[in-house]
Each structure stands twice: as structure tokens, then as C-alpha cells.
Amino acid sequence: MSTVVNEIDQLILFLKKVKLFAELGADSLAKLGSCLKTSEFPPAEVIVREGAPGVSMYIIKSGLVEVRKKDPVTGIDFLVTNLSEGAAVGEMSLLTGKPRSATVSTVTHTVVFTLTRADFRNLLTQHPEISLGLARIMAERLEDRTKQVGIEFVNLFRGKFDPRVVGLLPQQLCLLHKVVPIAHVNNSVTLAMVNPSNLVAFDDVRRYIKGAIVEPQICTDDDFRKFMDSVYPELMGLTHEKRNFDKKKEDERRKEERRKAHETPMQSLEDLQAEILSGMEVQSEEEEKDRPSATDLTSAAEDAPIIRLANNILALAIKKGASDIHVEPQEKGVVVRLRIDGVLYIENVLSKKIQLPLASRYKILSRLDIAERRLPQDGRISIKFEDRIIDFRVSTVPAKFGEKIVMRILDKGGALIPLDKSIIHPPTVEKLRWMINQPYGIIYVTGPTGSGKTTTLYSSLNEINSPEINISTAEDPIEYDLAGLCQVQTHADIGLDFARILRAFLRQDPDVILVGETRDTETAKIAVEAALTGHLVFTTLHTNDAPSAFTRLQEMGVEPFLMANSTIGIVAQRLARRLCQHCKVQTTVDEVTLGYFGYTPENAPPFYKGEGCELCNHTGKKGRVGIFELLVMNDDLKRAVASGAKVDEIRDLARDSGLKSLKEYAMVLMAEGLTSVDEVLSNLVVSD
């Protein structure tokens, strides 16, 4: 009995902390608790879907959820906020009877209390004080919105309005966006709005009032409806019959717009640019030289065509499989380039007039200071695209002709490539599998930036991942989400670097540890110590080949005998563009190039090149293929490393033990027609 009472008391204490029910007494909270049902949701499961009817509300007991809203044109789900313990979800939909305004899905395992519409309405009837909680929540949201955009609240029934001002916009537009002009001074229009975040409304208003500076003020939905039903007709001299006719006509127009929006494909960048430029006024040279204010930049960045242009660039890059987006201001335009398969291609050249609004839009999405254009800034955009969570790591730098923005695409929900698919040489796959299944030691993956090191690491972890082992990773950034792993993001601004995370991991009973990159002496030494004390460690280094890793570690201050005894093996790799298998043809190679690979015209295998076709966008290349070099430690190599042997001596010993060099691996790829000579020469320093 005491256990039951204790559970009820705990539930009452929990509900008391929920803002919606803060005004209820203990007895009422106990009755409320009896109506609640408990539900559990695994990670990445939808609790509430945007547009669905509101049949229940949810109170988060434990866990973390994210709230997302969909862009109707590109289909991108943008992250709005995260909610955790004590937050209520869906109460407004129950109250208004309107469909859900956003999608709520779990980030971690989440437990919620569910309250049905019928129980919620009974509570409102029996306990009017709940209305105070609702009013408080609505007031806080209104206050937050007001603070965020720096606007004032207006009462539409506490003032006299000029009919000429109110009539600046058509009635249909006012009803569509729930806006009404209330003041017009010089070039500034004050707009009463129910939702000042309605970016489409700003765009439509500027179409009717050319060149106007729109200054929004917030009004309540109830005030707006009463104003349009009573005050507006008197100001405009509208009859009751005409009002009803206009409303019916507007309803039909909105249905048709929704139907067209559903059928309309994603606009091209050229069409969006034309739409944006058509709404812009031509400025004089003097006006263009003036530094726009933060308000001007925000206003320009929140125009609907700019939003669609920014979203379409992101969606286009994802669909084309790009790894990076470059938005580069030039003297007379803005160049948008995409890095696809390691090579940059010009996607479009936009008008110079779009430069500031587009940059400001990306800075708003990545929560950067839009007014600061003199210093570099770093941020992040998170979207959901076709049921995948995709992050963009955003970097801005102040260049000669304006801020250059580069966005690295991190497809965290992308499918990992199995080891036997990314490594086409079976003996190399078997060696790597042997390495990753050792109980302890350290495995180094080396190569330059963009050589596929992270993919190899994650594919290896994915292969050994199981409920029986504890895998912890320290990353910058987290590029893939893997179930069952403890993944930690570094935060240099608060001192959370690789070394500090690694030290914490050693107190977390780990079996396997991944360190995103060994950059300094402290990280290198802790990683070696972890490997020598019974842990399997994965990490990366920047070296040209596998034997050079020992030289790099020695430069970091790691003792040779520690390297020798802790290292399992080293993987060096590169990425070369794969030949399009649809248009590849045999080609000839000059004698000098053949000599680089140890061939003569008599013993050379066939070589291939891509001619270019529609499937590969006329580049002759489609996708990428890995070039690998695996050094597996043995007794001879351990003795050589421990004695401080030079890199050439280590390389010779490794070859005697069966090492296939990067060059030799690349020769296999060329002979099989998977890549071309020019790709290999551009990726490797071919010696010998």
C-alpha cells in the first residue's frame, strides 16, 4: 500500500512541475494522474505527425524529442526545437481542434503520459484553473516570439485606423495571412499580424506595396477575427452579402492553391532567382555601398523566394550526392559550387543582388550573427530529408567580395558501406577484419582530408558492434549515427577536446574506443595507454602512407617501444573517382607513365577512360573507389619499430611480410577498369 501511495505522490510532484497543470491542487492532480496512460517510444519514432488530427496530448516523463516543420516545396524538415522532461506536446491542437502544426519524434528512448481529447475537455470543465496554465503557456510563447523578433503587441480595438491605410492590401490577402495594415508613414508600413513568423505574408505584402519597409506588430487571433468581421467592413464600406461572397471566393482560391502546391515540383534555381529579382528595387551605387542593418538583413533573408532558393540549394546538393556546398561571392555575381566525388562543379551563378539575403538566410538557419560580416563564424544546420537526418557544418569567412559560405554535408542517416564492398581486394578485407577483431591494441587509419577515413572507421565499428561490447566514440563532428554506441561530440570552446573525452572514457568500462583524430601529444599518449591496458582503439592520423605513421607518432612524443607493443596495424587510404561503367572505353597510355607503374608496352594490361554520357553527367566518372594499404604488425616489424628504425626500413620489412602498397592496389583497380590512370596519378605520389 505504501508503495502505491509513494508512486501517486511522485506523480503529483511531477505533474506540479508541468506548467499546464501548475494551478491544480493535489486532489485534482491525483484525479488527472488517474486519466493518464504511459507509453514508451524507441529512438527515431514519430509521436505526433504534422497535419494529423489532434486526438491526444502528451507529457514527456523522460527522454528527449525534437520538433520539426516541413518546407512544403522542397520537403525538407527543419528542426524547430528540442523538448525534454516535463514538456507538454499537442495541447493546443486539442484546444483549437486544428491539425498538428509540427512533427514530434523521439531522439532518445522516451516515456510519455498520454491524455485523450475527452479527458482533456473534462478536465477543462471540472477545473477552470487549467485555463490559467494554458494562458500562461500562450503568453510565454508570445513573449518569446516578441523578444526574438523585437516587435510590439497591438490591440486592434484601442485606436482609430485610416481606411486608406487599412485598404492598402486586398481583403483576400488580409484574410489569407491574418494581417492588416494599421499605419503608413513615409516608406514604412506597420502591419498587425497574428503570426509574425509568417514569411510568405511579408513577401506578398511587399508585392502589393512596392519598396515598403514592413514593421510587424502582434495581435491575437481573436482580435483579428473580430476586427475583420466588424471594424473592417465599416472602414471599407462592405455589405454583409459581399463579405460572405468574398469569403466563399477566398476559400475556393485557397483550396486551389493548396492543390497546385501539392503538384508543383521543386523550382529551379534560375526560376527562383528571377522571382527574387523581380521583387527587388534597383538601387543606386550610393545605396548599395551603405551597410544594411541587422533588421534589413533579417527582413531580406525571410522573403519567401529567398527561403525557397536557400532550401532548394540544400535539397539539390543532397540529391546530387554532394559532400560540400560552396557559396562564393565574386565581383559581379555569386557562384554556387558543389563538390561531387571529390571534385568541385559550378552549379549556378546567381545575381550579385542575392548575395546578402542568401548569406543571411544560411546564417539564420545556422544560428550565426547575421550582422557580423568581418569575422569568420561556424555553425550548424540540421534538417530531415526523405526520412534521413542530415547536418550541414557551416563555415563563413570574410572574403574580398563578401562572405564565402561553405557547408559540409553530414548524412548521419546514410547507409554504411560494408567492408567487403568498399575494399574490392579480398585479401585486404580479410586482413582488416582480423585487425578489428583483436581484443586490444590500436588501429591507425591514415590519409589526407576527404580520403574516406571516417567511412572506414564507421564500417569497421558497425561490423563488430554488438550488445555484448561497450563502444565509445569521441568525434568532431559526429558524422554517422550508429545504434548502440556512446558517441560524444568535442566542444573546444568549453575545453572538451579529444584528450579529455578519452580520459573520461577510460572510467566508463569501455571495450572499444574511437578517437576521431590524434592531433596532439596528449591524445596520442592516452590512446596508446588505453591500447596497452586491454582496450581496442581506433584513431586517425594525417600521413602519406602506412609506414610513415610511426614517424608521425614519434614526432608527437610517443616512445618507439610503446608504439611497437600497442599497434595492431595501420590502414592508409585514398579515394579515386570511379569510371562510369556505362561509357568506359579502352585507351592507350604513354611509355613514361607505363614506366611509373613498372610496365612496358609489351606487358601492360588494358587501361580505360570514361568518354562521358548522360548517366555520369558527361564526366566519364561516377562514384568513388577506395585505394588501400594495410600494414599488419608482426615480430620483425615490432623489433624494427621499437629500435627506432627509419621509415624506409620499416616499409621494406612490411613488403617482405606481404604489404600491398597504395600504388600496387591502384594498379589492381586500373587493370579491372574501375578507375583511370589520371585519377591514380592525381591521388598518389608515385615513387619507385
Offer a few descriptive terms:
688 residues, alpha+beta, Jelly Rolls, GMP Synthetase, Chain A, domain 3, Beta-Lactamase, 4 domains, 10-stranded antiparallel sheet, 7-stranded mixed sheet, 25% strand, globular
Descriptive report:
- By secondary structure, this protein is of the alpha+beta class.
- 40% of the residues lie in helices and 25% in strands.
- It is built from 27 helices and 27 strands.
- Helix 8 links the parallel strand 11 (188-193) and strand 12.
- Helix 20 packs across helix 22.
- The longest helix is centred in the middle third of the chain and has 24 residues, at 240-263.
- The protein is globular.
SSE inventory with pairings:
Blueprint: H1 2-16, H2 26-35, E1 37-41, E2 46-48, E3 56-62, E4 65-70, E5 77-83, E6 88-89, H3 91-96, E7 103-106, E8 110-116, H4 117-126, H5 130-149, E9 152-153, H6 163-166, H7 171-177, E10 179-185, E11 188-193, H8 199-208, E12 213-218, H9 221-236, H10 240-263, H11 269-278, H12 285-289, H13 294-301, H14 304-319, E13 324-329, E14 334-340, E15 343-350, H15 355-365, E16 377-385, E17 388-399, E18 402-411, H16 419-422, H17 426-436, E19 441-446, H18 453-464, E20 471-475, E21 485-489, H19 498-505, E22 512-515, H20 521-532, E23 536-541, H21 548-555, H22 560-566, E24 567-579, E25 584-587, H23 591-596, E26 607-610, E27 621-632, H24 635-642, H25 647-656, H26 662-671, H27 677-683
Parallel strand pairs: 9-12, 11-12, 19-23, 19-24, 20-21, 20-22, 22-23
Antiparallel strand pairs: 1-8, 2-7, 3-6, 3-8, 4-5, 4-7, 5-16, 10-11, 13-14, 13-18, 14-15, 16-17, 17-18, 24-27, 25-26
